[in-house]
Write a structure and sequence with these properties.
about 475 residues, alpha/beta, Rossmann fold, TIM Barrel, seven-stranded mixed β-sheet, six-stranded parallel β-sheet, 16 helices, 15 strands, about 15% strand
Length: about 475
């Protein structure tokens, strides 16, 4: 029986460690690893998941599992921000266990397969969705006949195969192998989750929108959704495996609003009692009042929106496809239904000025949000924004280790604003939002009422200390 070890990188969440978000970062299990593990098990192979984001001594854990498990294949998933770390992990594995075939997948291998396959320690690169591709690799199908991969021949020559078509019927995929994951390692503070441990679910793939800062590399621009019953079956499986709260990780959970409402109805119909959050995948132009009412009845208590800016011209310039009025409506409806609301914003969008950044800060403060997070714009590879900045000659480096949210100044020169100004308004955003007397008073009252005062104090110290 073939053995497959799947792992993410140690810094999966540590890349945020120096940002103003650090107090509200907690580990969640990666849906992608559980889904890939399900595909491995379906063909009769054995599989283990090693989540390195929660390990203080990741290389010690890697060596330990290599010596004990003896995998035939090791699958690594990583983003551009983590490519350098992935190279170190792959090299370490090859040195300790040279017989293992190392497979790279995820966002960065999909964008830059030629760059990744050139690494001596990496044997195969999987582009886009890996569910079927990984199965074919593990069962021993000749590499030359497997779509969607780059690989090395026995003579170390690099070969590129044709692209694999996207999976159209997601219900045909096996269930994610959540039984391979220990839920107890995903405990979150009360400020982040009502219940722990926290699990994650992906109910659809692909996003039809064209935001200029966003990368659609792995799942593409075509929206493909799991059926209502399949989604709720996955919720049930997570609960059976010991997770107490579930966070939805979709690009477009509510885009098919009738489907999203039907998921809520099915949860209610099955009388499932659990807490869940819409951590992403909900756009302000794709919701209505009834949706949030159904969410609350089904146990969902928090929603997060990507607002990005408080200026309609700026939103149009990044092809967001939303307006500030739609944002106001969405927050109002969610609040009326009794939900907590988080908001994500960007400082330093390409057309931003001091005036528009101030408008974004004012907008965030006026929306009545429970939480707000801002990042300084980072032009990620393979996005229209990155390509535009590269044409303008303002990309300063392609050293991917620089591509994180707290060293963006090393990556590019903003077309309108100095880095001193950007950093000033990044700090101003969080201080203005969180140190308003009304916010502090409301938060204190809520914390005392819900018994979360110590969690909130800890979060505040970690974030602003």
């Amino acid at each position: 029986m073939k053995k497959v070890l799947l792992m993410n990188m140690p810094s999966t969440i540590r890349v945020y460690g120096e940002s103003a978000l650090k107090g509200i970062i907690a580990p969640r299990p990666l849906v992608s690893l559980a889904e890939l593990a399900g595909s491995v098990l379906e063909i009769g192979a054995d599989c283990k998941i090693l989540d390195l984001q929660i390990s203080e001594k990741p290389f010690h854990k890697i060596e330990k599992i290599l010596n004990k498990y003896h995998p035939d294949f090791v699958g690594l998933t990583f983003t551009t921000l983590l490519f350098n770390e992935a190279k170190k992990v792959a090299k370490f594995i090859k040195e300790k266990f040279p017989s293992a075939i190392i497979i790279a997948g995820g966002v960065h291998p999909t964008i830059y397969p030629e760059e990744v396959i050139k690494e001596d320690s990496i044997d195969i690169v999987v582009r886009n969705e890996g569910d079927i591709t990984l199965q074919e690799i593990v069962i021993g199908k000749p590499l030359k006949n497997i779509k969607g991969i780059y690989y090395k021949t026995k003579k170390s020559e690099i070969r590129k195969n044709s692209e694999r078509e996207l999976i159209q019927n997601l219900d045909e995929l096996p269930m994610p192998a959540w039984h391979l994951v220990n839920p107890k390692i995903y405990m979150n503070p009360k400020a982040i989750a009502k219940e722990s441990p926290v699990g994650t679910i992906m109910t659809s793939r692909g996003c039809v929108y064209g935001c200029t800062y966003c990368n659609k590399a792995v799942f593409g621009r075509q929206f493909r959704a799991k059926s209502v019953k399949r989604v709720v079956n996955e919720f049930e499986e997570l609960l059976k495996c010991g997770f107490k709260e579930i966070h939805v990780w979709d690009d477009m959970f509510a885009t098919d609003l009738n489907r999203a409402k039907a998921i809520c109805d099915e949860i209610i119909k099955r009388k499932l009692k659990f807490t869940w959050q819409l951590e992403c995948g909900v756009r302000v132009n794709c919701v209505d009042k009834e949706f949030f009412q159904k969410c609350v009845k089904a146990g969902c208590y928090k929603v997060a929106f990507g607002f990005e800016s408080g200026n309609d011209y700026i939103l149009e310039s990044i092809k967001k496809g939303t307006t500030t009025q739609q944002a106001i409506n969405a927050v109002k409806w969610a609040k009326e239904a009794g939900m907590e609301v988080s908001g994500f914003f960007m400082i330093g969008l390409p057309e931003d000025t001091i005036e528009t950044m101030n408008q974004t800060i004012d907008f965030a403060c006026k929306l009545g949000l429970d939480y707000a997070k801002a990042t300084i714009l980072l032009p990620l590879p393979s996005t229209p924004l990155f390509e535009d900045f590269e044409k303008r000659g303002i990309i300063k480096t392609k050293d991917w280790s620089r591509y994180n949210f707290h060293t963006a100044s090393k990556v590019y020169d903003h077309p309108n604003l100095s880095w001193k100004t950007l950093e000033k308004y990044y700090n101003k955003f969080h201080k203005r939002f969180y140190f308003r007397p009304t916010y502090i008073a409301n938060r204190l009252f809520r914390s005392i009422k819900k018994g979360e005062i110590f969690d909130d104090i800890k979060m505040a110290i970690t974030t602003f200390g």
